[in-house]
Structure formats: structure tokens, C-alpha cells
Amino acid sequence: MDFEQSLINYANDLFVGFAQQHLVGADLVVFSDYAKGSLALIESLIARCRSLGKTTLVDPKGHEFERYRGATVLTPNLTELEAVVGPCQDDATLIAKAETLRSSLELEAILVTRSEAGMTLIQAGSAPQHFAASAQEVFDVTGAGDTVIATLAGCLSAGLPMAEAAGIANGAAGVVVAKLGTSSVTPDELTKVAEGLRGAPERLGVVSASDMLDVVAEARGRGQRVVMTNGCFDLLHPGHIAYLEQAATLGDMLVVAVNDDDSVRRLKGDARPVNAITDRMAVLVGLSAVDYVLPFSEDTPAKLIEALAPDVLVKGGDYIVEEIAGHESVMARGGEVVVLDFLEGHSTSSLIDRLSD
Questions:
Q1: Per-residue b/e over 232-243, b at no fewer than 16 CB within 10 Å?
Q2: Domain 12-198's class?
Q3: Helix, strand or coil, per DSSP, at residue 4
């Protein structure tokens, strides 16, 4: 119920008593202060939350931030913060003043929303963290602050660390301001925000088969599509580059399995490889299209493909699907096997022949 009237003349004590009864069973408490009067006695409510060990978020209003002493997180916008601490002409000043305020009010964190400049998190015991604005176009900022504190609350209730929760809240606000009118972020949109922030694991470059299994499992947990290819990749040429770049477009992560030196000799003869396995893998992982590279020692990577179970298996040349090692296990799991054409006029053998002339 919202009558746009203060409770001071008849119901302040009743309201505080009513609210305090419900704080005991709460996982987390949000106080969204609109300066309408319902939170006139917010000090006693925050004190109660603190005594109960409840995480407490406050979206503040006005110039008297002392009222919010002891809360867990304060989420002022830049204008509200400057009204209390004075002008913040640059990031360094903002961080210094916000930290002084955080410490003096015994807060765990202050999350400052800064419109097109994104958000800044000042947290006890951690370096300040800035989150760039995520919206490509801004149509309506109505409700952005509410989205931030609501998303932050949900993430913290779910056990996420403060910085990760703030990052997701920033992304959710970016979704909302890109919509017309007062809007909310949907569960699907919020999931995409979180997945986008987590992204792919850190590029590990050359990995072992066991490490690759872990990476693939993590990628699957995020719903990402894993593409895999294999080969000797002895002397890289434009055909290889075009092929790998095309393969990378078929999913979210490209894994390249490379024949080790002994298996190349068995396949190509004693004169090959020209480059050792470590050099071949180092060159491959330097390509922007390639995410992970790992060696294998068998004549074919069929066992490795079965273990990694890629969503897409790619091979270049004039193969038919049935000739490609590992195709059975990929297709049995519902994956795809794709044959890509090599760039005409380029091959490792012809390159070696030209170098020998």
C-alpha cells in the first residue's frame, strides 16, 4: 500500500514492530528509500538486521547517510553520493571519498551507479572495481536503480561473491535501460548476462588431455558449443588459416588436436615433421581462431575425440564423413561432423617442394 504519506503521526511504531517481526525469517533485506516516510525509523530496522546477522542492502535518498550506518551495502547513484561527499571530478576522487564514507558508516561495500559511466564497487578488503556500462543504446533509465539493487540482492542471496553479483547487476541494468518505459529483466535475459560475464574460461593455450576434459565440461555447463579438429599442421599456410577460421565460426570454442612427432613420421615418412610438436602447437595457439591445442600420439585421434565428445567435429579436404576418425562417437551423441574445403593452391607438401627447389 502506498499513500504517499508519512506514518509519523499514527503508525511509525506499529510499522517498525511489524517489519521487525518479519526480519527474523528473511535471508536478505532490501531497504529502498524513496523519502516518503515509511523508512523514517530505518536506523532501528538496520540495527535489528545487524543483530540478526542479515545481509542488508539500502538504496539511499537524501543527504543524511548516517541513517544507514551498519548496513551491508549502499547503492547510491553518483548524484546522490556527491550530494553527501562533494564533487567527484575523477575516478580517484570518487574512490577515495566513497571509501572514506564506507569506512565511517561501517558498511561492507558501496556500489555507485554512474549512468553511462557504468558502476564502481568499493568493498572492504578489496581493490575498487569498475564495471563499464553494458547497454549499446539507452532508451529509458526508469527503474535502472531498482534493477541494480534487486539483482544484487538475488545474487547475494544465491551465495555469489559481491563483485560477481555487482557485475551481473550492472548487466541487468544495461538490459533494462535498452527497453522503452518501466521494464524488468526476464530470467532468460539475466541468464544471458551471467553467462556473458563468465564467458569462456581463461585461454590456456596448450593443454593436456585431462585439463581439456575439465575445460570442455565447464563449457558444457555454460551451454557453449565445442568444435574440434585435428591434423599435423606442420607448416602453416593460408589454407590452414582459412580452414581454422571457418571452423571457429561453427561454435564457441575451437580445440585443435595435433599429431605428435612419432605419429607424423608414421603417416608422412621419416622426413616429416619439419617442425617439432612443441613448435607446431605454439604457432597454432597464437592464432586468434584457436582456443586450445593438445597433442595426441595415436595414428588417429578417435579415442581423444570420444573422450572429449565435441559438439562439432571438423575436417578439411575431400573426405566423406565415414572416413573421418571419431565420427561415430560424435554422431552417436547427436553431434555434427562437418567437412570444410581447403583453400585451393595451398598444401604443406607443395610448400615443402617449393622450398626444396
A1: bbbbbbebbebb
A2: alpha beta
A3: coil
Of 343, 348, 351, 344, give the one whose Cα is nearest residue 242. 343
Q: By C-alpha distance, which of 256, 188, 257 is closest to 223?
A: 188
Tens-digit pLDDT profile for the chain (357 aa)?
556 777 777 667 788 888 888 888 899 999 999 888 888 889 999 999 999 999 999 999 999 999 999 999 999 999 999 999 999 988 889 999 999 999 999 999 999 998 878 889 999 988 888 887 765 455 545 668 899 999 999 999 999 999 889 989 988 888 887 776 777 888 888 888 877 776 544 445 888 898 899 888 878 777 788 999 999 998 887 888 888 999 999 998 999 999 999 999 999 888 789 889 998 998 898 888 999 999 999 999 999 999 999 999 999 877 888 889 999 999 998 899 999 876 555 555 555 555 555
Q: What is the residue extent of each domain of the chain?
A: 12-198, 205-356
Cis peptide before 273 (omega within 30 of 0): yes
Q: What's at 300, amino acid-wise?
A: T
For this structure, is 2 an active site residue?
no
3-state SS, 23-67, equals HCCCCEEEEECCCCCCCCCHHHHHHHHHHHCCEEEEECCCCCHHH
**Can you spell out the DSSP letters for 154-176?**
HHHHTT--HHHHHHHHHHHHHHH
- Determine the Cα–Cα distance for residues 182 and 195; give it in Å rounded to an integer: 25
Q: Specify the CATH number of the domain 205-356.
A: 3.40.50.620
Q: Measure the CA dihedral 244/228/291/239, to 10°.
A: -10
Q: 146, 261, 299, 353: which one is catalytic?
A: 146
